[in-house]
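[Solved] Which block belongs to which protein?

Original post:
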Amino acid sequence: MKFKNNLNDPSNRLWSWNHNNTNCCHWYGVLCHNLTSHLLQLHLHTSDSAFYHDAYHYRFYHRFDEEAYRRWSFGGEISPCLADLKHLNYLDLSANAFLGEGMSIPSFLGTMTSLTHLNLSYTGFYGKIPPQIGNLSNLVYLDLSYIPSQIGNLSNLVYLGLGSYDFEPLLPENVEWVSSMWKLEYLDLKCTLPHYNEPSLLNFSSLQTIDLSGTRTIRTSLGNLTCLVELDLSANQLEGTIPTSLGNLTSLVKLQLSRNQLEGTIPTSLGNLTSLVRLDLSYNQLEGTIPTSLANLCNLMEIDFSYLKLNQQVNELLEILAPCISHGLTALAVQSSRLSGNLTDHIGAFKNIDTLLFSNNSIGGALPRSFGKLSSLTYLDLSINKFSGNPFESLRSLSKMSSLQIDGNNFQGVVKEDDLANLTSLMEFHASGNNFTLKVGPKWLPNFQLSYLDVTSWQLGPNFPSWIQSQNQLQHFGLSNTGILDSIPTWFWEALSQVLYLNLSHNHIHGEIGTTLKNPISIQTIDLSSNHLCGKLPYLSSDVFQLDLSSNSFSESMNNFLCNDQDEPMQLKILNLASNNLSGEIPDCWMNWTFLADVNLQSNHFVGNLPQSMGIFPTSLKKNKKLISLDLGENNLSGSIPTWVGEKLLNVKILRLRSNSFAGLISNEICQMSLLQVLDVAQNNLSGNIPSCFSNLSAMTLKNQISVLLWLKGRGDEYRNILGLVTSIDLSSNKLLGEIPREITDLNGLNFLNLSHNQLIGPIGNMGLLQSIDFSRNQLSGEIPPTISNLSFLSMLDLSYNHLKGKIPTGTQLQTFDASSIIGNNLCGPPLPINCSSNGKTHSYEGSHGHGVNWFFVSATIGFVVGFWIVIAPLLICRSWRYAYFHFLDHVWFKLQSFRS
């Protein structure tokens, strides 16, 4: 009872330990001697496998419910009174949470000399293991895995587990202590293995199991381990080929070599390991086809060949496995291994398989009818391949199917109620990026309960699917681009109150949301973008951390949204309200949103100064140390850009303030934003000189994955996956004065520089590695520097309408540009049709002949004006046309992205 009082038992597993129940031999976890009633064993282990979503995730993906685990495991302290149990020989406290600063393994355990079995693995203890543990001479089983380990001589050990991924090796340099354990049958060292040259630790004829996973370097051979049953060398830095000598370990049942740098082909000698049950070679550089000798491994139950370079036809792989292996195989994973070809009827021979993972390959064709024979199939992943046809013709009978992933293929067809009727065990359904149409009756109720649903790009509309009401276990809900033309029904938010991820974007959903995103909603990510939602912005639950309402018709002020009194701190990190009809001033309530990292308010109708909580900018942003992207472009914001933006927002990589009414100077404090990758303050009223401190923007070459709209060549280009390669400074269309500072043109990592439409003077200096230069419509003078011809990656140049003179430098790039990029100067030479005279005179080139009317530009101007009023003006005037046009563009972009994927 003293021992219990020192424990934390959140799940009340020790309810039977009480004074009313005096026979402690009947207590939970207690085992006594049949005759003497001496307490012999304490089993207080917490099994973590129950807290994985299921066996599939435990085996392959390790999706662990840590919160539920914490609510079940023991914690607190281990009382010294435990040493009073003089007959205790078995103590298992593993996989519990005895966490605390500096909490180490109690030294009194070294006095419990009757112990033969001690398991303290995964208990959260910290620090070196007390040397007293070495006094436990009767120990046969010792597991101290995931604890930094240093122990003494324990010659009777049969099982030794010291695995630890979290700490530096603490084993002594002299490893003879391991050699003294001549009875050892199980050895688990993981990354506690010390560095030594020729150890004898593996020269054990009795060893049956070796787990050296995560040791990073192994400098020893396996020796003559004829009794070896299990060998785990995964997660090391093993290089070279798989030794053929592995084929001599004919007693092996499990062989795991995953997550290394092994190369070459899979040796045919592995076909000698006829006792193998599990073979895992995944995450290596192995290439070539699977050797036919593996057909001899008739006892195989689990195979993982994922993330290899097989370059093999999938039917060839199945033909090797089918004759002998197929009857007992339960798991086959060959993901991202360059498989091609079509599945054949050989797949029907794998009647006991429960897990089949073929994702991210190039397998095509329709699923064979024999798929329907896989009655044990529970987890199927065929995503990101080239499959076609209607898979439900083959899958409709698989009643044990729990997880079905067929997203990212060319599947198509009509899916009816009967096709889904037998899938009664289905919990995860990943089917986005195909061309399905779901045709079910208005009263259809599925026979399954899903936790994950993504049917993006299916045709479900026009009405909102009412069968969603029956899915009360959903956590991930994706119905993007499904042709819904309806409003969100009143029952929707209450029925899906347990959902964590919601995506209804790219539909035609209309109506108002009102207060429905308030409690009891627990959704963390909400994407309702690219719809026709209107009215006021909704109130928000404090649980939401990502909200995208962009490209809708929300109107009025943001005041109620931002300034609503909250009972709990708002967790929102990402907010996208771009392209709506929001108006008025931006409210002064940003201090309530301290976790915001990315805010997009562009393309609305805001007016006036930014609020005091922004300090013109929101002052609350000063506290957002993790802010990466700040985009306030295309509004009507005024005032100056405060100096604290550069002083406080030191993690910002993208600062976009274009198309506002900001005035004043560009402060030197901007240069303190050393991580800045994109600076866009174009189309404002900024004045003064360009700061000469831009050389401090040292991280211009750092990569990131944030999407931003860069205005180059007079048009917007959206950089998504390639933004990590893009750096840009755009100061165009302001009132900047003075010379172009050398520090900005010397930025070797800068790709795009736009200083056009200012009042800059002086010469053009040398350039870095620019790909786009626009200095047009300034008052620059002097000659074009010869070094500009060295910019081999220059794809855009505009120096027009300045006071430049002299000969245009010759080079591989400069003469390829159109003459319009250099007109309005006193220049000569190609690409201008003006020869440089021998007396050094130059000419002003304004058109094709330098005088008179340039009818080409006249006609071009007329054509532009007519085209603008025919095509663009209706989009500006008619909102419904504008929505339809941009929805069309979104649809084309989505198709292109899907094709590219």
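(Second protein starts here: sequence line, then its structure tokens.)
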Amino acid sequence: MSEGDVAAFTHLGETVRGALSERGFSTPTAPQRVAIPPLSAGEHTLVIAPTGSGKTETAMLPVFDHLLAEDGPPEGFGVLYVTPLRALNRDMRERLEWWGEYLGLEVDVRHGDTTQYQRGKQAENPPDVLVTTPETLQAMLTGKRLREALADVSHVVIDEVHELAASKRGAQLAVGLERLEDLASGVQRIGLSATVGDPGEVGNFLTGGRPCEIREIDVGSNVDVTVRQPEITDEDERLAGELMTEADTASHVRLIRDIVAENESTLIFVNTRQTAEALGSRFTELELPIGVHHGSLSKEARIDVEDRFKAGELDGLLCTSSMELGIDVGRVDHVVQYKSPRQVARLLQRIGRAGHRQDEVSSGTIVTTRPDDTFEALAIARRARDGEVEPAAIHDGSLDVVANQLPGIVQSRDAIHVEDAYETISRAYPFRDLPVETLREVVSELHRNRLVWFDESADRLETTGGTWQYVYSNLSMIPDEATYEVHDIASGSQIGTLDERFVVNFAQPGEVFIQRGEMWRIAEIDDEEARVKVSPIEDPAGEVPSWIGQEIPVPAPVAREVGEIRGVAEPPLSGGADASAVGRELEGRYPADAYTLTEACAQLERQIETEAPMPTADRLVLERQGRTVVVNAPFGHTVNETLGRVLSSLLGQQAGSSVGLETDPYRIELEVPSSVATSDVLALFEETDPDHVETIVELGLKNSDALAFRLAQVSAKFGALKRWQGNGSGRLSNDRLLAALEETPMYEESLREVFHEDLDAAGASAVLEGIQTGEIEVDTYRGRTPIGQGGRSSGGKELLAPENADASVINTVKERIQDDRVILLCTHCTDWKVTTKVRRVSDQPTCPECGSTRIASLNPWADEVVQAVRANEKDEEQESMTERAFRSAGLVQSHGRQAVIAMAARGVGPHNAARIINKLRENEAEFYRDILSKEREYARTQAFWD
């Protein structure tokens, strides 16, 4: 450690050092030791360190020091502190206000919810430090008085810069920083980042390619991660009965419970909101002090659990990716990751939230559920320890961001020459290679859409009547998606919401997905009402969800290492060693106990026992049973998705019919016509030109909902289309959309985005090239293999209740039927008729007029049936109604209130009600379960009856 590092605080002035003493900072933290010297020297600096290690103070202490130097704070804004989350705004203000009060500097916050009064005050009397979001900065850059105040900015701090670098929000911010530079030249840029694989690229993103000092704390060496798959114990069998779930699920809950009990404060990260809710419900049943925190909860609910966790009222907090960022929840002792974190960067960010007392080690446990999960977690844990982190995927040249920024630039200046606008935009790192001709194409599109006026003779851009409205309606690059309500068709209750992207890309009647920890099948989609009707899956064990939530993509290097582990295990297993022996060999390299490694290796042992080839990083295994072809290919999500699209497209052309496709990081599953032979699939691997991959995929995308959805979003940023969803007109035809926009910058950007986020043409081409040069071999197998079927146990079903563990659903149905209204009609005298709630019906309804027990139970809208019974007429339709009423009365006479309940159910007439009542059953829940079953059957066939 250098002398400068030890004496980092000596770079600060006397006033700030006094504040440090008052605050109890006697020794600089690791990021402070290495970063304060270049920051104090005014260098653009990227600070890479774990969340909670004092990065905020690292950045702000030299900044405060500068504001207090010689001339004092400026009249306008001195410092902008930009955070990607409003929740971070709140945290940053609370953390910085103490320093501001002590040092005599004003700290304030500005975001979308800031009142008009407060905004006016900030414009008239700008605070010294303004905490804000990327979107609010966009708005500030167009206001005349605010632009004058921004001209005094000397420092910009970008918090969580790694998050922004990999998004279009970041590309927009990069241009915004250059627009700020046009106002206030020489602004020092400071970035605070979690660990990334390409610090230099993130530094370039931060500074626009200007020189940047990178100060990085080695996180991997300070992280202690263990991978554990719990062994099922007698306690788990008991717990399974208590939770009405399977023993393996109970073992996961028990292990997490025990880890939380061993520590004072534990964050429990999961990969989806559905898993957070499902796991949270288990802890609630056990009455454990563990809260739930994710983005679908209200702001108030999130703040409540954050505060309770910080105060020690909660021992654990179940959370999703939102808690990866620097939201202050106090001290964290340990981090649990439930299931593989999918990426090294994500693991480091999550585990890095633990510890940080004088640079102590951050400890965490990855709880895994099956072999794929375990091997993936092992590879990620090893790569984290050795610092092999994924690069940040910067959005280079996103044209909708250019389209978004040009009207803002014009609005802020009233008029600007095209070359000057290009000079500002192309200084931003994501647009360093943007051809000026491409920018002119965007300008032409904006001119056609009347968002800017292009004076070709003067080569100048001017405002139009629509410029101002566009700018303030499009401050964000986050897509403005509609939300669909999801309703259980049987109970009528809302179970959640779905994003528009899900509905457009995936939702079709018959498809299966997971929400609220349960599996549902789509019955109907109503675009005008933005509503999806679903029915619960009665037997989750027999279903595979075709969609399970927004999956975090597993990178190719991680998936390849899983293939490498298999390759290491293959020789000893083939030589007669068992799974435990192979597990012991892996124990030295990977952080897991013997049981976890043995359980994972048992899958590989079964693969050898079936005499099937082992899929590895250098060997694809193509297996087939019936029409299902599975390509075992450990190359990650985006490579496999690309290869899968190539195969399905070419096979579909050959066969003249569609080919079903599902992919995961380790498999490509194809449902092929019977005319397609295994040799046809093999031939495609051996003969498809690797250089044609992108073209083949692009042709296939032309008819896809995925591209149409992106195209609609991108064209909205160009002002070319009104929002095409939720406006009462239904979905636009893909054909019409593509025909109108195919030769435009919008189409080009939509394709770029699909390839950037979902596909990897270069990686897929490399696999084909490897096969064709012999570096990767391809073997075939007839039938299904243990590894090939390994993906079938995925999808989060570990947390799903078995069929009879549906107490909440049954209770909902019961409550709904009890509150339903029915008409009771005496079929003997026909004089007595009453409308009442089911819960008010006596055990044996009796007519108060004549004493008869032949009481028909009818729907509350069945007045025509009442009239038919009273008229006793004999036309065919009325006779049918009368007969139905008498059958209902006979059932009520025999079975009393139970018959009324059964016939109050939806689509359940006297015939089905009799079948339900006559079944032998153990309890009331079984009775309502049978009613629900009949309701679901009616829901599925309702279209035929209607």
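Accepted answer:
You had them paired correctly. Confirming on the second one: The chain has six domains: 3-218, 222-385, 399-473, 486-523+533-541, 612-785, 807-945.
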